[in-house]
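INFO batch 0412 | record 1 of 1 | parsing
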Amino acid sequence: MARKPRKYHTLLALIDGRWGIQFGAYERGDVMAERAAYIENGEAKAKELKVITTGDTQAEINAAVAKLNGEG
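INFO prediction complete | emitting tokens
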């Protein structure tokens, strides 16, 4: 029996014009807290951060990031 896909939330940061994975979790609130910490600590501006929701396989996450970077 195939497993039921779960939603996975990933925090991305725009670095040198490309989106990169910074943090991920099943709970969106955890990712939003990490995003807030990046902003509060001055590590990134809000416009340089993005939260995406995908399936929970690395392939799904990588494909979504590649698409944002114009590679997919």
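INFO post-check: The chain has a mean pLDDT of 95.
INFO record closed
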